[in-house]
Amino acid sequence: MARIVRPYGDTMDDGKVQLSFTLPVPEGPQGREAARLAVLGWGFKDCEVVHSDAISDDFSFYVAYASTDKGVDYDSARPDAAAETSMSMDEIDEFIRERLGRKVVIVGACTGFDAHTVGIDAIMNMKGYNHHYGLERYRMVEAHNLGAQVPNERLIEYAEKAGADALLVSQVVTQKDVHIGNLTELIELLEAKGERGRFVCVAGGPRIGNKLAVELGFDAGFGRGSYANDVAAFVAKKIVEKKKAR
Amino acid sequence: MRKKLGLSEEKIARARELASSIVSPIMEFVEGYTTVAVERATLRIAGADGADPDGVPVPNKIVDSIRASEPGLGGGALLRYADAVLRSGLAPEALNERIAAGLDICERPVSDAAAARGKAMELVSLGLDRITRNRSRREEKLREFEGRNNDPLLYLIVATGNIHEDVKQARAAALKGADVIAVIRTTAQSLLDYVPYGATTEGFGGTYATQENFRIMREALDEVAERERRYIRLTNYASGLCMPEIAAMGALERLDMMLNDSMYGILFRDINMYRTFVDQRFSRMINAFAGITINTGEDNYLTTSDAFENAHTVLASQFLNERFAREAGLPAGLMGLGHAFEMDPSIKDGFLYELAQAEMAREIFPEAPLKYMPPTKFMSGDVFQGLVMDSMFNFASKATGQGIHLLGMLTEAIHTPFMMDRFIGLETAKYVMNSMSSFADEVEFREGGLVRARAAEVLEQALSFLDEIEGKGLMEAIAAGMFADVRRPKDGGKGLEGLVKKSPDYWNPVEAELERALGIGG
Ligand code: B12
C-alpha cells in the first residue's frame, strides 16, 4: 500500500520547503521577482522570497519559502546501503572462522592524488572511529593500509602480492568528479588484467553512495558515517558467496 | 597588549631555548645542500621563465641539463645561465625562448667565469629590484588605506579551478569586506616538481599556482582595492616540492602572504624531510626579503589528531616554526603562526579551552599576526549547526586579538565554497566581531580559573614535548610519529632525488644577497 508523504512545516501536508540560492543578477526588485518566478518554475505551488542581499555588483542571494503538493510514496523508497544487516566485530570474526576457516586479506588505500587519510584510517586502523574498532583489530582479518595518494597501479600490484581478497578504496575529493575518474580507472585496470573477479572491490568516502559505486563497477560503496564492521560484514559475506558460486 | 593568563615567562623562554637547540642541527645540515627547486627559484629571480611545447618549464630544462652534465649541479645553476645569456648576446626573454625551443645551454663549458659572474649579478639585481619595488608599493598602499582593513584581517579562499572564475569570486568577496584572498591550489600540485606555466582553467579542489595566475589575480584585487580604498592581500602556497620557486614567483608578482610551513610537506604530503628543510629556508628568505607574511600550518595537526589531547603539539610546532623563520631572517611581524578551533563540540567547556589556546598563542607570540583557522573536522552536513560553530570561532578570534582570521564556511563538510557560503561567512563574522568589538579590553581571566589552568597545562606539556624532541633530534622525532600521529622515515617520501650536496665552488648570489640584506649568516 502506498503511503504518500509531503514536507511538513506546521500542518500535515502543508508541503513547506526552505530554499536558499544565488542568482547572477544584481540585487533589486527585478532580481527578487526573478527569484520568485524561478522557484515557481521548479514546480512549487507558491513562493515567498523572505530575504535578499547583494553579494556583489552582479550576484545576489535569496532565502525563500515555498510549498509543494507533490508527495512521495514512502514505501517505494529503497535505502542506498550496501550492508543491510551489519554484524559486530566478534560476530564477523566468528563468521569468517566458520565459513572460510582462514584470515581474510584486505588491502585499503586512498587513491589518485587524494591525500585524505582520516577516512580510510577510520576503517582500517586498530583504533577505528567513534568506538568502532578498525579492521586491523579483527582477529580474522589481515589488513594492509597503504595510506593516501596511492596510484591505482600500485594498489593492484600490492593486492596481487599480498594475495588480497578485497580492495578498499577511499575517495574524498569529488570536485569536478575526479573520484569518478579514479574509481573507473581502477576497475578498468582490473578488467584489462582479467582480475576483476579476483577481488571484492569496495569504494568509500563522504560523497560515495552504494548506487554510485555499483554503477562504477564496484561490489559496494560506503558513505558518511560508515564503520569498519559494516564493510567487514559485507566483504566477508561476499567472499563466502563467491566461494559458494565456484 | 595586556597579559591575562599569568603564564610563566621562564617557561616560555625555556621553550624558545629548546626550539633553538632543536633547529640548530637542522640548519647545519641545510647549509651544506641545495635542491633542484632552490636552483630553479634562483634562476627565476634572474629571469628564467617560460615553458617548452610539452609544458616543461624553462627553469626545469636548465636545471635538468646542468644535472646531467659535468660537473653537475653542486656548483649552482646561475653561473651557467648567465654564461649562456652572455654568450648568446640575447636578453633573458629571448634566450628563454631558445631554451624552450630546444637549446641546451650545457653543450659548451662556461668560457669566461668572471664575465659570467658579472652578468649574473646584473640579472639578479634586476629581479631583486623588482621585488623591492613590489614591497614598497605594498607599504605605500597600506599607508594610503590605513585603518580601512578589518581587525583581524578577514581571509577567504577561492578554489574553483579556473583562474577567471576565481577572479569573479574573489572580487565579490573583496567587495563584501574580505581583506585577504587565498587562491587554493589544485589537488596534487604540491607533488609536482615543476610549476606549470601560464593562465589555467582546470584544477581539482583548487587552481594551479602559476606566475600568470598570480598576476591575473593581483591585477583584479588591486582594482577592487582602489575602488574600496582598502588594500586586499593576495595569498598562495609556497609549499610542496616547489616551495622556493613559488616563493620567488609570489615575490615577483607582489603576493602578500604565503602558506609556508617548515614541516607540513613532510607530514601531510609525504615529501622527504631533507628536501623540505633545505627548501623551506630558501623560500622563507625570499618571503622575508619581499615582506611576505608566512602562514604556518599547525592547524593541520588537529585534523589527524585530537585537538584537546594534542593542543601542546600545536604550541611546540609554533615555537619550531618561529625558530626556523628566524633562521631565515623573517621578523616576528611576518610570522603568521597557525592554529585552529578544532575541538570536539561535544566537550563540556570546549569553548573555554579554545579561548585558552588562542589567548595563550597571542601572549606567547605578541608580535606575530597569528593565523587562526576555523572548525573543519567537526563540521558536518548540518549547515545550521555549522554556522553556530563558526560564530563561536569568530567570537574566540576577536576576543583574543588574532591577526589573520580564516572565515569558516557553513558548507565545509560538503564542497569547496559556493559564492553564497562565503557571503554568509563574511556577514555573520562582521556581525559578531562588531557587536563584541571591545570585549577583549573588558574581560580578565580569573586566577585559578579554568582558562588560566588550561593554558598553563598546555605550555607545560609543550615544554616536555620539546624536551623529548631535543633528546631525540627533530628528524628522529618526525620518524617516530611524534607530530600529528604521522611517521615519516628520513630517507622516505618524495623529492629526495632533488637534494644536491653543494660543492666547494657553489655559487649563488641570490642566496648571498638575501643573507646580506636580512643580516643572517651563511
Ligand atoms: C581533514 C581534512 C583535510 C586534511 C587531510 C588530512 C589527512 N591526513 O587526511 C588536509 C588539510 C591535508 C586536507 C587537504 C585537502 N582537502 Co580536505 N578536508 C578535511 C576535512 C576537514 C575533514 C575530512 C575528515 O578527516 N573527515 C573525517 C573522516 C573520518 O570522515 P570521512 O573521510 O568521510 O570518512 C568516513 C566515511 O566517508 C567512510 N569512508 C571514507 N573512506 C572510506 C573508504 C572505504 C573503503 C569505506 C568502506 C568507507 C570510507 O568512513 C569514514 C568513517 O565513517 C574535510 C571537511 C569535512 N569536515 O568533511 C575537508 C575536505 C574533504 N577537503 C577538501 C579539499 C578540497 C581538500 C584539498 C583538495 C584542498 C586543497 N586544494 O589543497 C586538499 C586535498 C589535497 C589532496 N591532495 O587530496 C574538500 C573536498 C571537497 C570535495 N567534495 O571535493 C572538503 C570537503 C573541504 C571543503 N569543503 O572544501 N583536507
Please describe what this structure looks like.
With 246 residues, chain A is α/β, with parallel strands linked by helices. Chain A contains 7 helices and 10 strands. Chain A has a 5-stranded parallel β-sheet with strand order 7-6-8-9-10, sandwiched between helices. Chain A has a 3-stranded antiparallel β-sheet with strand order 2-4-3, with helices on one face. Chain A has a two-stranded antiparallel sheet with strand order 1-5. Chain B is an alpha/beta fold and 522 residues long. Chain B has helices at 9-31, 36-45, 58-68, 78-88, 92-100, 113-144, 163-175, 211-228, 243-252, 264-269, 273-290, 301-304, 311-327, 350-364, 383-399, 419-435, 439-442, 450-472, 474-479, 509-518; strands at residues 33-35, 153-158, 180-183, 233-237, 257-259, 293-295, 335-336, 338-340, 371-373, 404-406, 499-501. In chain B, the strands form 2 sheets. A 9-stranded parallel β-sheet of chain B has the order 7-6-5-4-3-2-10-9-8. The radius of gyration of chain B is 23 Å and the shape is globular. The chains are: A alpha/beta (246), B alpha/beta (522). Bound molecules: cobalamin. Cobalamin sits between chains A (108, 113-120, 122-123, 129, 168-170, 172-175, 202, 204-207, 222-226, 231) and B (159, 184-185, 187-188, 205-206, 268, 300, 303-304, 376-377, 379, 412-413, 415-416).
